[in-house]
Design a protein that fits this description.
The complex is a heterodimer of chains A (306) and B (264). By secondary structure, chain A is mostly helical. In chain A, 76% of the residues lie in helices and 2% in strands. Chain A has a two-stranded antiparallel sheet with strand order 1-2. The chains are: A mainly alpha (306), B alpha/beta (264). The A-B interface holds A 157, 159-165, 167-168, 170-172, 174-183 and B 53, 74-77, 79-80, 82, 84, 86, 90-97, 101, 104-106, 108-111, 113-119, 161.
Chain lengths: 306, 264
């Protein structure tokens, strides 16, 4: 039991740090209505850049977070240009960037697929020394603070004129073009912002787990979607935008808790991706199946009532 | 005001589906002209409006609006001059956004969008006043999602959005065609009211000949990518549906005689 509790604590902090990535996925998937597969690559990019900067260039770990975020923004821009300027379908544009990032990440880390951060300071080790708390506690608090800041900034941003135009782009491209908005720009901004957050999340997870890895982002998009749908199910029919953003992070935490529990119960870590996919598929299938069932069984050959 | 000169547009050039939509079209609108556009399917009416709005590039010719050559400007740049309402009520509004947010998006048409608030409190009060003009009670539902409104309500809202910032030119592409007769009439009455009160230069496509004759100061008839009939003022006022049908027949060598849709 104790080991489950301990692993749950780690899962919560992990969930919050990955939650920043989920917010990025939320921007593209929910607001822009684009399935952006850059995420797997830009998450690993954030992690690899962060590890390389800290280990090879002895960069301040906070600054490394910023650099990782900017790298994510750049990755988003590449997908954005492929999609908006050259009109490649968004899914394919994302896949192209994602695949190329795998090689780029290897180059960044000097050909190594994994780079440990054991002997260097991270934001978390620094805070552990200062406060004397355990790292899992520190990363949880720090993660919640960052998530709260990001949610507040996104809430503000999507209420501004540009933010509204981005939301409208996801809603109705034809309409917002007729109202004088260049949808190439709004899509670019959305993709860059989203992948910036994904890069930041990758860097945070890198510092928390003390290694950068080119495979760290594999399946990130599925985790993102799983967290979003889990959050939606948990929070029910909420309308406030702030609550929706929060539910994305909560969904991420719950996802990592479920994951910790099934791992404790003896499931192989290698089966986790299968489980993630099943969770997403179920969450997407169940409402459709329920609606079909409802329609089928509400049919009355005798007619209907008023 | 608006001068369309010698504009050509062919879709799917060089393929079996080649369609010459506009063939050297010429049109000049004066300030305050309210022009109704009629013609059979495929006459090029919608293409004309889409070319003016910049939805697709034109193959040749010039479009001058208020002295500015907009022939090759992208759609979002031209939007500054144009108010548009589409045939499909779903096209003109963002379903997932609130009524006031939709109006605020329209209120900033053609302006630089920055980091100021998307909707301010003061503008909301203005919007509520404007919504009262529609007489649909939407002013009490400012924070409802537009997706919850009916087709007619959405179309009326789109019309208000298109004219919220007075456009140099209002383009109405069969904007009542998808509505039931009663709602269509309501939306058309609102259209007439807004256009005449603000003296808006307007191009309105319609398939309803009675409406085409009843509204506006000028009527143009299109056929195979050209304007084949153009009447205004007194001349237009004297026209009857029978006259128009006769014009169609003359122009098309009888092929319109059986076009029942035209009688609607």
């Amino acid at each position: 039991m104790a080991s489950i509790l301990l692993s749950l604590q780690g899962a919560v902090s992990q969930g919050v740090l990955w939650g920043i990535m989920v917010l990025g996925v939320y921007i593209t998937y929910k607001i822009l209505n684009i399935s952006d597969l850059t995420v797997d690559g830009s998450f690993a990019l954030g992690s690899c850049i962060c590890a390389t900067m800290i280990v090879n260039y002895e960069m301040n770990p906070f600054l490394a977070l910023v650099v990782a975020m900017l790298a994510g923004v750049l990755a988003g821009a590449v997908t954005g240009i492929l999609h908006t300027v050259f009109e490649i379908p968004a899914i394919l544009a994302g896949i192209l960037t994602q695949i190329s990032l795998w090689s780029i990440n290897l180059r960044i880390m000097g050909g190594k697929s994994n780079m440990p951060l054991l002997k260097v300071d991270t934001i978390f080790t620094g805070l552990v020394e200062k406060t004397g708390m355990k790292q899992s506690m520190i990363s949880l608090i720090f993660g919640i603070v960052i998530a709260a800041i990001v949610i507040s900034v996104l809430y503000w941003f999507f209420g501004t004129e540009i933010g509204s135009a981005i939301r409208a782009t996801g809603n109705n491209e034809k309409m917002i073009r007729a109202l004088g908005v260049d949808i190439k720009k709004t899509k670019m901004i959305g993709l860059m912002l989203a992948n910036g957050l994904v890069g930041l999340s990758g860097a945070l997870v890198c510092q928390n787990s003390k290694y950068g890895d080119i495979n760290m982002g594999t399946g990130a998009i599925v985790i993102g979607l799983a967290a979003i749908v889990t959050g939606e199910v948990l929070m029910g029919k909420i309308v406030s935008f702030k609550a929706k953003l929060t539910s994305a992070v909560v969904g991420s935490v719950v996802y990592f808790m479920i994951r910790a529990i099934v791992l404790q119960l003896g499931m192989s870590a290698n089966d986790m991706k299968l489980l993630s996919a099943v969770i997403v598929a179920l969450a997407l299938c169940v409402p459709v199946a329920m609606e079909k069932y409802r329609i089928k069984h509400s049919y009355n050959p005798e007619g209907g009532d008023e | 005001m608006l001068t369309v000169s010698n504009v050509y547009k062919t879709f799917n050039k060089g393929t079996i589906n080649e369609k010459k939509a506009l063939r050297g079209l010429n049109l000049h609108l004066k300030e305050g002209d309210f022009v109704t556009v009629i013609g059979g399917n495929g006459a090029g009416k919608s293409t004309l409006l889409n070319m003016i709005a910049g939805v697709y590039p034109i193959d040749g010719g010039k479009i001058i609006l208020n002295g500015e050559d907009i022939s090759r400007q992208p759609e979002h740049k031209r939007a500054k001059h144009l108010g548009r309402v589409f045939q499909d009520p779903m096209f003109g509004t963002a379903a997932g956004m609130q009524i006031d947010e939709n109006l605020a998006l329209a209120y900033r048409r053609g302006e630089k969008r920055g980091l100021g608030w998307g909707v301010t409190k003061e503008e909301s009060e203005v919007y509520a006043e404007k919504l009262k003009i529609l007489g649909l009670g939407l002013e009490t539902r400012m924070t409802s999602k537009v997706g919850l409104l009916s087709g007619g309500q959405r179309q009326a809202l789109t019309l208000l959005m298109a004219t919220l910032k007075n456009p140099n030119l209002l383009l109405l592409d069969e904007h009542t065609a998808a509505l039931d007769p009663k709602t269509a009439k309501t939306v058309l009455d609102i259209t007439n009211k807004i256009v005449t009160e603000n003296n808006l230069t307007t191009l309105m496509i319609t398939h309803n000949m009675k409406d085409a004759l009843r509204l506006g100061n000028r009527i143009i008839m299109m056929h195979e990518g050209r304007i084949i009939f153009d009447a205004e003022g007194e001349e237009k006022a004297k026209l009857t549906v029978a006259d128009l049908l006769q014009k169609f027949e003359q122009a098309s060598g009888g092929e319109f005689a059986n076009d029942r849709m035209m009688l609607a």
